[in-house]
Design a protein that fits this description.
The complex is a heterodimer. Chain A is of the alpha/beta class. Chain A has helices spanning 9-17, 23-36, 48-60, 103-110, 153-160, 177-183, 217-227, 271-286, 302-317, 336-347, 350-363, 369-389, 415-419, 426-431, 460-474, and strands spanning 43-46, 72-76, 114-119, 167-170, 186-189, 210-214, 257-261, 290-294, 395-399, 435-442, 448-455. In chain A, the strands form two sheets. An eight-stranded mixed sheet of chain A has the order 4-6-5-10-11-9-7-8, with helices on both faces. A three-stranded mixed sheet of chain A has the order 1-3-2. In chain B, 39% of the residues lie in helices and 21% in strands. By secondary structure, chain B is α+β, with helices and mostly antiparallel strands. In chain B, the strands form four sheets. In chain B, strands 1, 2, 3, 7, 8, 11, 12, 13, 14 and 15 form a ten-stranded mixed sheet that branches. Classes of the chains: A alpha/beta, B alpha+beta.
Chain lengths: 486, 493
């Protein structure tokens, strides 16, 4: 019954709850798909044996009231998992096995789910194509030799190829939404502070946020419900009551105001994306929403601001990978300084090094005011743009990315063109607000394209509702040939 | 050596050079370990002396994905200390990352406070022989301690102990208001005393709970502009600090007088050679790339919390000193000594509660302090408790024993901690205060020394002492000297 793996999370959860299928059977189906895959390279670590064991244990004493009863889930290899290798896609942590569990994965396991494997990602989540991973690039199941996006590329690829029923990623500048858009899946970046960062390998602390990646908006609501919650171990966690996103999910969006920011109509944007956006407006209008033209004047500064703030924090966050305590240590070098230099030269890849260099530079004395401090001021202006607009609208509709999935190697040596991929997603991280990408159509190559909905802080429910309404009308169908099984 | 130190000329510490007198300008950065059961951003214990790497959490060792959470008790301790330094408490402060690589710094950065410290300007009053002096406090901020690198276990490897990693420190920065090694001594002692009164730092320099960096420059007397300063790192005793200052000031004067300039740099004090030497120049100074720690929210202090802490502040040394002078008729010197340590002042107050003030202060500052010095123990470790000290003083006041006998009794007390009453009784040391008994002895002495009595009566007054001596000898030292005097005067008329 391989069809099982094509079903949505909500569907299989219901099947388990109705005792029509067992967790073991479900888990076996996914393991079979994982084993058949020869090309995608979406898994860094497979946990087939332990997953089957947990499935059997679940079936012996099924707890059916949980949100994710007996559901195997593979997660981005940025989440620390107790006793299971956590690499962050880096040689630096190639053999690192944490003895602790991240709050987010722990929340999933508490809701009845268990670990199916660890998914490939860009090294330390730095990348937009999953080509910076020490464990090799990941392919997008939509076509051979196309990138799945990044940094949660392994997550998006595995989800689209039905190797996991749902997954989680992290989004610092678009790392959930862009791969979701490239693979025809749903990805949500929650409000900063809604999901705990404790136990997630840090990239840029003020921007990092974990979120669900799913096959449907309904699944997304269910996953967010399981993940979100206050965590006293994370000082930036928001202390608020848990919400029942899945129970309260509704496609009734009549009267809601949707803003269309003119600044997101960028030069040289493919016509198909313009068309997609227009279609999105039309659909929401049909659902009873009001479309309003808005302006977010500081949008053009978002990308340069992001590429100052994120590397600055990263340069400091990654200082701990020095070969002293855990992880990779070079055996070359005659003193402490040489050991540091060799360990970090050999242990980090080019993109990580590039960002550490940029980050170190912008924080240096004499440059701090011109770069980091100014970027923080602009960041405030960008947030203020959204604050102003949200006095008038309930949500904002934009394309998720300025293009569809590109070929592997196409942008690898052109960081600027690579960074431009995040142009629509980055402002949201800088403002700390939630946004969701849903599949909304395809381009001439039949590659998926996504639309992004941006919401007010902690307004995930409304965002999910709008996405839910749009999803119904768009009725996107994934058409994949299983070329990766040969 | 060109210069010559003119110690305390007109109360001033000046260095006499060939081209005039030089003044020494000193500012201190004191690192005081906060008294707290757990660390600044983790739940690990802070107990001193544990086995290496047994008090280390995942946060302290900077494992991937670990996040700091502020220990509110440490924040309260910093506020308390700030209030004790008469300082402004900042309602808004920020934790920053100070980035540098070192093997005992697991995160690759120290969480500290840079632009917005928790405590702003304050001051400390120093009690100097020539009077009091006000020293400004620039700021106090909270920061994490690093771990410890141990280089001498193995010839080829360095070992790292992270027990100290993440322990809360208060960095207290003074204004450049200090002018001599003696003032530095007084400043550290006063600061230490205030923090010990508050219970915010135990001030133990041997265990490293109190360390200081010394900023020092020199300028010609009369100059207004400050000279270029050098920073002497981590000098771990007051004595070494004073030696380092004396050496460094001299070095700077010699440089300037020979037409050279002082380089702004960080120097180390070599305790064996008694000299400072360059550690790193300004050019080699670390660029710490400070920026606000994105893992922590800014610290917003509630007015009510500060008010509450203020209301519950204990009596501080300066207030106690005033009260002692007023209530116990002590002079400034005595009051300073007795309030210098909270334990001493508590001891004194317990003793005078039941015994004579004048005797109490003399005995505590005399024999008791001598015994503490001799044994190198603190007052709280002394076998002579306040209770038995008061008993001893009362035996003197009530005439049971003489002052001289009391010294004998004290010698036993300081070893055994026995009650003086028991010692006096078992050794039969009570004074003879029965006038009849004393009269008998005196009559006997006078009868045996009729010639001396004649000489006395014919004007040789000095013989009075001889008679007293003989009486004391006859009574084996137990005769009440006051009574002996009275009876003798009467009999020799």
């Amino acid at each position: 019954m391989t069809e099982l793996t094509k079903k949505s999370l909500t569907e299989i959860t219901n099947l388990i709850k109705k005792k029509e299928i067992k967790s073991e059977e479900l888990t076996e189906s996914f393991i079979r798909n994982i084993e058949k895959d020869k090309k995608l390279n979406s898994f860094i670590t497979k946990c087939s044996e332990s997953a089957l064991k947990k499935a059997k244990n679940f079936d012996k004493k099924p707890e059916l009231k949980k949100l994710l009863p007996g559901i195997p889930i593979a997660v981005k290899d940025l989440f620390c998992t107790n006793g299971v290798k956590t690499t962050a896609g880096s040689k630096m942590l190639e053999n690192f096995i944490p003895n602790y569990e991240s709050t987010i994965t722990n929340n999933l396991w508490n809701e009845g789910a268990f670990l199916l494997g660890k998914l490939n990602c860009d090294e330390y989540a730095m990348g937009s194509s999953n080509e910076t991973s020490y464990f090799g690039n990941v392919m997008n199941p939509i076509a051979k030799n196309t990138v799945p996006g990044g940094s949660s590329g392994g997550s998006a690829s595995a989800l689209a190829a039905n190797l996991t029923p749902t997954t989680i990623g992290t989004d610092t500048g678009g790392s959930i939404r862009q791969p979701a858009s490239f693979t025809g899946t749903v990805g949500l970046k929650p409000t900063y502070g809604l999901c705990s960062r404790w136990g997630i390998v840090a990239f840029a602390s003020s921007l990092d946020q974990a979120g669900p990646m799913t096959k449907s908006v309904e699944d997304c609501a269910l996953m967010l419900e399981a993940m979100a919650g206050f965590d006293e171990k994370d000082s930036t966690s928001i202390n608020k009551k848990k919400e029942n996103y899945s129970k309260n999910l509704s496609d009734k969006i009549k009267g809601l105001k949707i803003g269309i920011p003119k600044e997101y109509r960028v030069e040289n944007m493919p016509k198909e994306i313009d068309k997609l956006w227009e279609n999105g407006k039309k659909i929401l209008k049909e659902s009873g929403a009001e479309i309003i033209d808005i302006t977010l004047p500081n949008t053009k500064y978002a990308l340069p601001t992001y590429y100052i703030v994120a590397p600055a924090e990263a340069s400091s966050n990654l200082a701990r990978y020095d070969g002293v305590k855990y992880g990779f240590r070079s055996n070359r070098g005659n003193n402490l300084l040489e050991m540091y230099e060799n360990t970090r030269s050999e242990g980090f890849g080019d993109e990580v090094k590039r960002r550490i260099l940029i980050g170190t530079y912008v924080l240096s004395s004499g440059y701090y005011d011109a770069y980091y401090l100014k970027a923080q001021k602009v960041r405030y202006l960008i947030k203020n743009d959204f604050d102003q607009v949200f006095k008038k609208v309930d949500a904002i509709l934009t394309p998720s990315t300025p293009s569809s999935a590109f070929k592997i190697g196409e942008k690898k040596d052109d960081p600027i063109s690579m960074y431009l991929n995040d142009i629509f997603t980055v402002p949201v991280n800088l403002a700390g607000i939630p946004a969701i990408s849903i599949p909304a159509g395809t381009d001439n190559n039949n590659y998926p394209l996504g639309l992004q909905l941006i919401g007010k802080p902690l307004d995930e429910q409304k965002l999910l509702n709008i996405a839910f309404a749009a999803e119904k009308k768009i009725n996107f169908k994934q058409t994949l040939k299983k070329w990766w099984e040969k | 050596m060109v210069g010559k130190i003119m110690n305390k000329q007109n109360g001033k510490y000046l260095i006499k050079g060939e081209k005039g007198n030089w003044e020494v300008i000193i500012g201190l950065e004191v690192h005081a370990q906060v008294i707290s059961k757990s660390k600044l951003f983790s739940g690990s214990s802070t107990k001193f002396g544990a086995e290496p790497n047994t008090q280390v959490s995942l946060v302290d060792s900077a494992f991937p994905g670990m996040l700091p959470v502020i220990n509110e008790y440490c924040v309260q301790q910093a506020i308390k200390t700030g209030l004790g330094l008469n300082a402004k408490i900042n309602h808004y402060s920020v934790f920053d990352r100070k980035n540098y690589f070192y093997a005992d710094l697991p995160q690759g950065y120290q969480i500290s406070q840079y632009k917005n410290p928790i405590v702003g300007e304050g001051n400390i009053t120093l009690d100097l022989p020539e009077g009091t002096k006000n020293v400004g406090i620039e700021r106090l901020h909270l920061e994490q301690d690093a771990g410890k690198s141990i280089h001498d276990i193995d010839p080829n490897n360095t070992y790292v102990d992270l027990n100290r990693s993440g322990v809360a420190l208060m960095e207290i920065v003074s204004k450049p208001d200090l002018r001599s090694p003696d003032e530095v001594n007084a400043y550290i002692k006063k600061l230490r005393s205030i923090m010990r009164y508050l219970g915010t730092c135990d001030g133990n320099m041997q265990e490293g709970s109190l360390r200081a960096d010394v900023n020092i420059s020199v300028r010609k007397v009369g100059d207004k502009k400050l000279g270029t300063r050098c920073e002497i790192k981590n000098v771990n005793s007051i004595k070494f600090m004073q030696m380092a200052i004396a050496y460094e000031a001299q070095r700077q004067v010699e440089l300037l007088e020979s037409g050279k300039s002082v380089d702004q740099e960080t120097r180390l004090f070599d305790t064996k050679k008694n000299e400072t030497r360059s550690m790193r120049s300004k050019e080699d100074a670390h660029d710490y790339r400070y920026f606000p720690d994105p893992d922590l929210l800014p610290l917003n202090l509630d007015k009510k919390l500060i008010e509450k802490i203020k209301k519950n502040l204990p009596e501080l040394p300066d207030q106690k000193k005033e009260r002692f002078i007023k209530n116990y008729a002590l002079n400034t010197y005595e009051a300073n000594v007795l309030v210098s340590e909270k334990e001493i002042s508590d001891y004194f107050e317990e003793v005078v509660e039941t015994s004579d003030i004048k005797l109490a202060k003399n005995w505590i500052m005399g024999d008791l302090f001598a015994s503490l010095n001799e044994k190198n123990i603190s007052i709280s470790q002394s076998p002579v408790t306040a209770k038995i000290m008061a008993q001893l003083i009362n035996s003197i006041s009530s005439g049971i024993i003489s002052g001289r006998t009391a010294k004998e009794v004290f010698e036993i007390m300081k070893e055994t901690g026995e009650e003086p009453n028991k010692i006096i009784e078992s050794k039969g040391l009570q004074q003879k205060s029965d006038p009849k008994e004393l009269e008998e002895i005196i009559d006997k002495i006078l009868n045996n020394n009729k010639d001396k009595v004649e000489q006395y009566k014919s004007g040789k007054d000095k013989l009075f002492g001889f008679f007293v001596g003989q009486v004391m000898k006859e009574s084996e030292g137990k005769a009440n000297p006051k009574l002996v005097n009275e009876i003798l005067i009467k009999k020799l008329k």
